[in-house]
Design goal:
The radius of gyration is 25 Å and the shape is globular. With 386 residues, the chain is an alpha/beta fold. It has two domains: 88 residues, Immunoglobulin-like (Sandwich); 242 residues, Alpha/Beta hydrolase fold, catalytic domain (Rossmann fold), CATH 3.40.50.1820.
């Protein structure tokens, strides 16, 4: 004979079973009103952005890298409450964007593609048409989100790590390339808007780059700010040297000698490349600086002069060491002519040339955007570990 508790349990199980058999559509959020597709990429590169906001008074789409719209791409409201704008044609690439609905910034509710930055999330749209960064039918590597404990910063941190096709077989060691992001971004940026994994897959498949492990750490070690005095302690460099590199060399099959290590970064990451790479030039055979240089090397009349010794003064011994220069296989700079840091790049290159460094400097078209940084990665990576 069943007890009352047994009967209650049986009834509960039956109720749960009934719910599990219901159509799964009830478990999904349902879009009210007109069905909206956004973003929609046409064959000619035009992008249509849409958002359902029937009660809004003004809606804009903004994305700093999307040519022609900036942060003020006004959208038009249809009779069905759907706001829409068509931009482009836009050249192939990945682009971040968000909507501004009556002054409130929101991601695209009809798209699951996102890209993180340091303080917010962006929606992401990819315009195909550039084989070198498109998704191709080639052997694919993997990108992992890796959590580690930083003994330098006394907290857990995250980095992204790309391992090349074939790494999972468990055989062999690989060279390692540390790739740094810019100010305001995070360790997710190079693999989303930067498409680093796709670029490396395609280069390796074509035989244009060696298989390598690419480590993309979080560059912001503390609160981000423009300008102001230099911090007394370079927390990122400490984290990088004391925690990131040891973690990678302990947990990944990478070579640990100088000739198999490279470091590069864009903007803030380019400055960090110099701050880490030059004082520890014995550890790196390849340095890449994208849209950057030594911050403060160009004096601005509207800002006070930097306090303390200059970069050149701090690193005089390394700059004068001829033996260290012999093991530096590539010292590569690239900046667009319209970049606001182009004078910083030029002055930095001249400073290193003055100290007899063999510096490669490419100054092409473009500004301070992901449009050029993806190109720089495509140009730089094939020159590594050859």
């Amino acid at each position: 004979m069943k007890t009352s508790s047994t009967v209650q349990l049986a009834a509960a199980v039956a109720l749960v079973s009934t719910h599990l058999l219901l159509p799964t559509a009830h478990a999904q959020p349902r879009q009210q009103g007109p069905q909206v597709v956004s973003p929609e990429v046409a064959a000619d590169g035009r992008i249509t952005f849409r958002i359902l906001a029937p009660n809004a008074g003004e809606v804009k789409v903004g994305g700093s890298d999307i040519p022609g719209i900036g942060q003020n791409g006004l959208m038009t409201k249809g009779t069905n409450g759907v706001w829409e704008v068509i931009v482009g044609p836009v050249q192939p690439g990945a682009y971040r964007y968000n909507f501004n609905v009556d002054g409130v910034s929101v991601i695209d509710p009809r798209s699951s593609n996102v890209s993180e930055s340091n303080n917010n999330v962006w929606s992401l749209v990819h315009v195909p048409g550039a084989e070198w960064m498109d998704t191709q039918i080639v052997p694919r590597g993997s990108v992992a989100e890796v959590t580690y404990y930083s003994s330098s910063l006394k907290r857990f941190r995250r980095m992204h790590v790309y391992t090349p096709p074939g790494y999972e077989s468990g055989e062999g060691r690989f060279p390692v390339f540390y790739l740094l992001h810019g100010a305001g971004d995070c360790d997710d940026s190079w693999t989303t808007v930067g498409r680093a994994g796709f670029i490396l897959d395609n280069l390796i498949a074509a035989g244009n780059a060696r298989p390598m492990v690419v480590v993309m750490p979080a560059g912001h070690a503390g609160p981000f700010r423009f300008g102001g005095p230099r911090p007394a302690v370079d927390e990122f460099s400490q984290d990088f040297l004391n925690d990131i590199m040891p973690h990678v060399e302990k947990n990944y099959r990478v070579h640990t000698d100088r000739k198999n290590r490279a470091i590069a970064g864009l903007s803030m990451g380019g400055a960090q490349t110099l701050n880490v790479g030059v004082p520890h030039l014995d550890k790196f055979a390849y340095l890449g600086v994208y849209s950057s240089g030594v911050f403060g090397i160009v004096r601005r009349p509207d800002r006070p002069a930097p306090e303390g010794p200059s970069f050149e003064e701090q690193h005089q011994a390394v700059l004068a060491d001829a033996k260290l220069k012999e093991g530096l296989k590539l010292f590569w700079f690239a900046t667009g002519k319209d970049d606001f840091l182009v004078e910083t790049s030029r002055a930095t290159v001249e400073m290193f040339k003055k100290h007899n460094f063999d510096v490669v400097y490419n100054e092409g078209e473009g500004g301070h955007t992901w449009i050029v940084w993806r190109e720089y990665l495509k140009e730089f990576a094939p020159q590594l570990f050859q």
